[in-house]
Amino acid sequence: MNKCVIIVEGIADAVFINDLIGTILPKDEAKFEETVQFQRGKKIQTSIYRDINIFVAGGCTSIRKYNKQIAGFNDEGYKVIMLQDADSEEKDNHHGGVTKRIKYLNEIKAEFKIEFEVFLFPNNLTDGTLETILLSISADELYNKFFKCYEGYSNCVKEINSVNSKELLEEKYLIYNYCQVYQGNEMSSERDRRYVSEFWNLDHSNLQPLKEFLISELDI
Length: 220
Fold this sequence. Notes:
about 220 residues, about 45% helix, about 10% strand
């Protein structure tokens, strides 16, 4: 059984990965529920039965400042897994896109002589983000009904402020408002979301690459 530290970008990633791990662990193994404890720079164990931990570090350029912690995890015998957005060259012309992002992370490994395995959202092959995954696994019927209304709202805002209306259709805004509509304000924030089958298709084929990676690396 591997003991692991999963390094993620932000609270949204930590909460999602925590819930996803809960779906692939054996049913008799409880997952971590107190997601309020997730915070940057702190290692939180996700199950009382396995030494699987989530560590919030920020985006790819933030990894450098945690090189000593990662080296410490290596020395303590933890397998370190790095989950990051692939992003795109349009979004980040320095390190964006799968090829550039992997190259950059490999440079960090070599520079600080640290070890970690990498998976880039959404599927380790194409550009995108955590939100790219989330949009693809939202419950189709619910999301389509939501988006029909939300798109109308966005088009209306466009008549008032065309610049700000573009932001409304960014992936993060879509996910936030999807959660808000169906689960209310209390469940719409990144920290308080719960990824349950009523609103998310956790068996979707788009999740398979990530699930298979986690199952293999975590030795589940």
